[in-house]
Design goal:
Structural class: alpha+beta
Number of helices: 5
Number of strands: 10
CATH topology: YbaK protein
Distance between the termini: 18 Å
Number of domains: 1
Radius of gyration: 15 Å
Shape: globular
Largest sheet: 5 strands, mixed
CATH superfamily: YbaK/aminoacyl-tRNA synthetase-associated domain
Low-confidence stretches: 168-184
Amino acid sequence: MTSDADRESLERSLAGRGGHDLFACDPALADTAAFCAAYGFAMEDSANTIVVVGKSNPPVYAACVVLATHRLNVNREVRSRLGTRKASFASADETRAVTGHEIGGVTVFGLPAELPVLVDAAVMQRRRIVLGGGSRSWKVIASPSILLTIAHAEIVEGLATPAPPATAAASGAPDAPGVAAPSGD
């Protein structure tokens, strides 16, 4: 998809959801740490959409929205909500198959209605958040209340915990400091 087609798709997903700004970015800088450094956004305002898979037959998926400065509690809270014995971060291929988005650009808007959306309560405490825009070329800047427009979203206390500062800054994960697996934006 071209950047224009990506923007049109994003605008359709955001229609009727209230105030927001679209922010174009260099796809090479779409991963959270690089994006924040290049464009002057705080990591604390970056809310990443991370796809998690519950190990069952068939697999069960959820999209989780957490601050970049937090660690997603996959093995307790997410696994419990998925109703599976095991859960892990979805691979880049699984994320693409479930959401249609590339890692570094996953957006919570326009996802299939059957995909649970779990939002860490800490996200809702920010004044504004930066979310993926459905491609590595776009971000969405909005009040966290925009997440309340997603009919199947659930705000979850304790979905994630603050990552230690050194871990958050030094993590090799492209979008979720404090986790070792790739994530969605």
